[in-house]
UniProtKB/TrEMBL annotation:
This is Flavodoxin. The keyword Transport applies. Keywords: Electron transport, Flavoprotein, FMN, Transport. Residues 4-140 form the Flavodoxin-like domain. PANTHER family: ANAEROBIC NITRIC OXIDE REDUCTASE FLAVORUBREDOXIN. Transmembrane segments: none annotated. SUPFAM superfamilies: Flavoproteins. It comes from Selenomonas ruminantium. GO terms for molecular function: electron transfer activity; FMN binding; oxidoreductase activity, acting on NAD(P)H.
């Protein structure tokens, strides 16, 4: 059974809803899944997991949330080389440039990026939540 951490930050609840749907899909695929709000996860725990799924919405000028998520992710990057990683998040403006930059950055860390990232504009509806569950399922099956 693959051990997976889903680590997210959510300001409006949109990214949290995505995280919970991803968790549902990952558990349905047989993963040993732990869901963490970013403040509850320590970067030193990265090596304890077979794969990590990070979620953060676009903030400001299409960047990661800078108060707690960015510092955690920056610290976690030291341990991502060779690690399977998936990214997700929501946005309310722009076209997803923050996810493109984040995916490129994560590849540069040497992570085995699962996809280019799952993005949802504003609140996820039924179709988007189904996509989130599918991401969780497919990620676990790929480990």
């Amino acid at each position: 059974m693959s051990k997976v951490a889903i680590v997210y930050w959510s300001g409006t609840g949109n990214t949290e809803a995505m995280a919970k749907a991803i968790e549902e899909g990952a558990k349905g695929a047989g993963g040993d899944v732990s869901l963490f709000e970013v403040e509850s996860f320590k970067a030193s725990s990265v090596p304890d997991y077979d794969g990590l799924i990070f979620g953060c919405p676009a903030m400001g000028d299409e960047v990661l949330e800078e108060g707690s998520f960015e510092p955690l992710f920056t610290d976690a990057e030291k341990s991502l080389s060779g690690k399977p990683v998936a990214l997700f998040g929501s946005y309310g403006w722009g076209g997803g440039a923050w996810m493109e930059s984040w995916a490129e950055r994560t590849r540069g860390d040497g992570a085995k990026l699962f996809s280019d990232g799952l993005i949802v504009e504003n609140a996820p509806g039924d179709a988007e939540l189904a996509d989130c569950r599918q991401l969780g399922e497919n990620f676990v099956k790929s480990l």
